[in-house]
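Z., the sequence and structure:
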Amino acid sequence: MRRKNSRIESFLAVGAGVALLAALGAPATNAIPGPDVPAIPHVPEPPAAPAAPGGAAPAAPAAPAAPAAPAAPLTPAVPGGAAPASPGGISPGFGGAAPAPGGVDPGGPVGPPIWIPVAGLGAEVPVFTPPPNMTAFVPGGATDPTGAGYQIPGAAGGTPLANLNPEEFSRMDAGQLGKVNANQMPDIPPYAFTRFLPAQVEELSSAQLNAFTGDQMGALPFAAIKGFQPEQIDGLPAATFGGLNAKQVSAFEGKALKAISSKQWDAMPAGAFGEFGPGQFRSLPDAVLEGFQPDKMSACPPEMFSGMRPAQITELGNKAFSLIGPAQSAEFTTTALKAMSSQQMNFMPLVAFAGFDAKQIKSFRPDTMGTFKAAKLGAIAASAFAGFTSNQIDAIKPKALKLINSDQIGAFPLKAIKSLSGNQLKAMPTNAFAGFDAKQIKSFTIPTLRVGMSPKKVATLESKVLAAMKPAQLGAVLGKPKMARSVTVDQLIALTKKQVASLPEDFVSALSAEKQTALTQNPTSEA
């Protein structure tokens, strides 16, 4: 689906605070850098070990300063207030009132809408520093696995596992790697895995993988993740997946991706979904979707939402979309929206409704739209109102229309106008009636106008709009003497002779002398 940048970007705040990540349980290594802290590079190259003079163990090199990470323009951050990185609040201005923290509407969202940016929790590759006493690596030397007399790390005469160098580890062949005892695996520092190769990942035994830690998993390069085989995924403890970052999760594909269990998905940090692709989501078995909780869905990039299958929508549960933003809702396909239940739709935050366009609105099921409260309809973009159908209008409760505005009213298609009831028209706010145009006013049924038009609402209509009414419509609107107080001189001057002739005597008699004079002036048209 094509991205809809122009009408969405104004709804998105930028930046996110470390305090929010701490509240969500973000690990310190994956926290978003603050304004005075350099951002972590997305795919850092581990520093090479310096040669140790005289055979002494080198000191741990300091992690290099990294350039600031580029901003992701369409990735929602935490909204709220004028200052960036102010979690919790929602900026109003989407057509309806902003929900209070904790949510509104049936059930309400599970909390204030939050969108974790790409640079958020679990999204960046942590910087794994070298062990303090790391053994110097010299090609062809005693620590080079390709050299004669090489001793397996941890064995007598071999490199201590705690001092293992990534260069040494990445040069170990299958036979050498297989001699590393599974019980020794937790002793290997995460830094040693930063140059691990895909072929080496394939060689890890079930016993070795079962001893894998989350930090070791998080240190694997992007390419190494592609080395995992389905049977290996089955052997990894769920907690190990808690160390993954977004770049790594985006590397899973094919049978390995499908082999990840619900518990393993559930263990991943929310920010690890910041680069999850539509093809990846589309290929997931329905059974694992329970692992995609609201915070994870909120962290997924907008384009991922275009990959959802209708069957997956059904499996995700009622609260799955309760924290998404407008850039994400804008990517739902119409077939996916048709599969969405009223409970799922009503758990969406108000700001998500600002992302829908007319084509998407047209796909909403009438029974679902019939459950909407005023804030939901009020949050829909004015241009999206062009998608309303007659069947949807028939299902909408009158009180759900009490927050719509003149721009939204002006976008209603004529077929939808014809379906509006008198009670629905009556429930619309008075100041919104200025949005009606001549074609729309002519589409109203006489019963609807008779019930829905009040003196104050008549006064808000443009003169040319009132003059566009058919004589029977005008008679229905101005049929009561009390309307004489609200109709304006300019409106009366704009009426045609045919319209003037159709006005009820009671109405004309109730007009002031000035307004009666206005009726006798030459109309601009005989029609």
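The two ends are 47 Å apart (CA to CA). Residues 1-114 have pLDDT under 50 and may be disordered.

Let me know what you think.
H.
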